[in-house]
Design a protein that fits this description.
This protein is of the alpha/beta class and 496 residues long. It has two domains: 26-154 and 396-480, Alpha-Beta Barrel (nicotinate phosphoribosyltransferase), CATH 3.20.140.10; 159-386, Aldolase class I (TIM Barrel), CATH 3.20.20.70. Helices cover 35% and strands 18% of the residues. It has helices at residues 13-18, 65-73, 80-90, 97-107, 143-146, 148-152, 155-178, 200-210, 220-229, 245-249, 256-266, 281-292, 294-302, 316-331, 357-369, 383-386, 468-474, 484-490, and strands at residues 43-52, 59-61, 113-117, 123-125, 129-135, 189-191, 216-217, 241-242, 271-275, 306-310, 334-335, 341-342, 347-351, 377-381, 396-405, 408-411, 430-434, 437-441, 454-458, 461-462. The chain has a seven-stranded antiparallel β-sheet. A seven-stranded parallel β-sheet has the order 7-6-14-13-10-9-8. Helix 7 (155-178) packs parallel to helix 8 (200-210), helix 8 packs across helix 9 and helix 12 (281-292) runs parallel beside helix 14 (316-331).
Length: 496
């Protein structure tokens, strides 16, 4: 059946920004609606924590909590209208109408919880506490774990930021081994995952997380999130002017040279990337860019331009090597102080097909074995960077570790005999720096003065507001990082 309307439907910008959910009560799994009735009588406090229980990578880059807090939890988020909407949709006798009204009437709709977390951008070994949450009003202990669902979604920016940093470590390693500096590492991986993720919001969050480690990105939504939620006001580096297959093949096969000539002339003296595998990759690189258009490429370079040759099919390690060899034959090479070949600085090859942290190792290792420096190549990564991840990538979990019942502290934990990896922590937690690195202290045994967890949110107010610049600084590559080559050798995870 087709429904016809006589007038266009108008949706306000505010409604579009909110999406399908704009009610804090709906930021939870449905089964949590009745949990307030399941805790022991006399419970006045619930204290929970969030951690990476292990997972694929040996550490996590903590990022994204500030976005969640600002987007969903800061300010008077509980309203009369929100309660009425929830009551109407849930139509469930277990709905905690009284509890939500209490928050509205006694706290002006602001959530009476305290959230502590490691500073964003921190690189923390797995199995350490990252966030703690507890209610500040004894009348609403249930609120602590009601917020589990939305707060647990920090797993996604954590997973992307961590995955991205592993990519950066691989690239950094090969730049160190085959080159004289690592200055171009932050510009060596393009995020081209916008179309490969599940939503615009996913693109924004994942794109922002990747920008902690790299400064080139095609995911415009990531820049927008950083500007709105992380005070990023400087001009970000975008991936330059790249062609796509449609801008080349629309000229027709016989006019492929005209397509690349037009791109170079239109963006003369700029950063220009030409996709070259529309027909015959190697003929395009050698006969068109390195032959018919060679003088134009050099003139382009004399005006400060850079030409990036982009293959987009075939076996990456073989394709990249052959493109470098063709370009080296056409434009010449130099040998750096470590004995590796480099193209003229105005030429690069960008491989953006089939890229993940393992294929980076394969490609760059193959180039090293054939005498080429890593700084001749940049990369692009899409779904494997932003989408081929889930909550179990780093085994992220949010668990209750302490309850106050009838005035007594009660340690709360799980210890399943069927999976010891899911054993949870007990009591109040602190994260401290000890000899040998980070350590989580359980059962209140830590020193509060040494606790690295910072109160970032309390009673509806954001207490810590990080800038993206300081987050980037915290996440920088460090000599204390795990040996990336050892990690790659030992990694037996899912197929990428």
């Amino acid at each position: 059946m087709i429904l016809e309307t006589s007038a266009a439907v108008s949706v306000s910008p505010a409604a579009m920004d909110a999406g399908p959910v704009n009610n804090v009560i709906f930021l939870a799994d449905c089964y949590k609606v009745g949990h307030h009735r399941q805790y022991p009588p006399g419970t006045t406090t619930l204290y929970s924590y969030f951690e990476s229980r292990g997972g694929r990578f040996p550490y996590t880059v903590f990022f994204g909590l500030q976005y969640i807090l600002k987007r969903w939890l800061v300010g008077p988020v509980v309203t009369k209208e929100a309660i009425e909407e929830a009551k109407d949709i849930l139509q469930n006798d277990n709905f905690n109408e009284e509890g939500w009204k209490y928050i509205l009437e006694h706290h002006g709709g602001r959530l009476p919880v305290r959230i502590k977390a490691v500073p964003e951008g921190s690189v923390i070994p797995t199995r350490n506490v990252l966030v703690t949450v507890e209610n500040t009003d004894p009348a609403v202990p249930w609120l602590t774990n009601y917020l589990e669902t939305v707060l647990s979604q920090v797993w996604y920016p954590i997973a992307v930021a961590t995955n991205s940093r592993i990519h950066k470590q691989v690239i950094h390693h090969y730049h160190t081994v085959t080159g004289t500096d690592t200055n171009s590492v932050p510009y060596s991986l393009h995020d081209c995952g916008y179309r490969g993720v599940s939503s615009v919001e996913s693109a924004a969050i994942g794109g922002a997380a990747n920008l902690i480690n790299f400064k080139f990105s095609d995911t415009l939504a990531g820049f927008c999130l950083l500007k709105k939620y992380y005070h990023e006001v400087t001009r970000m580096d975008i991936a330059g002017v790249f062609s796509e297959h449609s801008t080349v093949t629309s000229w027709g096969r016989e006019r492929e040279a005209d397509a690349h000539r037009h791109a170079l002339q239109t963006f003369f003296g700029q950063f220009v990337g030409c996709v070259c595998d529309s027909y015959n990759l190697y003929e395009c690189v050698e006969n068109i860019l390195g032959g018919e258009l060679k003088d134009l490429v050099i003139q382009h370079a004399e005006k400060g331009g850079i030409l990036v040759v982009r293959p987009d099919s075939g076996d990456p390690k073989e394709v990249v090597l052959k493109c470098l060899e063709i370009l080296g034959k056409c434009f010449g090479t130099e040998t750096n102080s470590k004995g590796f070949k480099t193209l003229p600085p105005f030429l690069k090859v960008c491989q953006a097909d089939g890229i993940n942290f393992k294929s980076l190792d394969i490609i760059l290792g193959h180039l090293k074995d054939h005498g080429w420096a890593a700084n001749n190549v940049s990369f692009g990564s899409g779904a494997s960077l932003l989408q081929r991840l889930d909550r179990d990538t780093q085994k992220c979990a949010y668990k209750c570790s302490l309850a106050v019942i009838d005035g007594q502290d009660v340690e709360v934990f799980k210890e399943p005999i069927t999976d010891t990896g899911k054993k949870s922590k007990r009591g109040r937690l602190t994260l401290q720096m000890e000899e040998g690195g980070y350590k989580t202290f359980e059962k209140g045994t830590g020193d509060p003065d040494k606790d690295l967890l910072v109160t970032v949110f309390e009673n509806g107010e954001l207490l810590k507001d990080y800038t993206f610049d300081e987050i980037r600084q915290r996440a920088e590559i460090s000599p204390s990082d795990p040996d990336i080559m050892k990690f790659l050798a030992e990694d037996q995870g899912q197929r990428w």
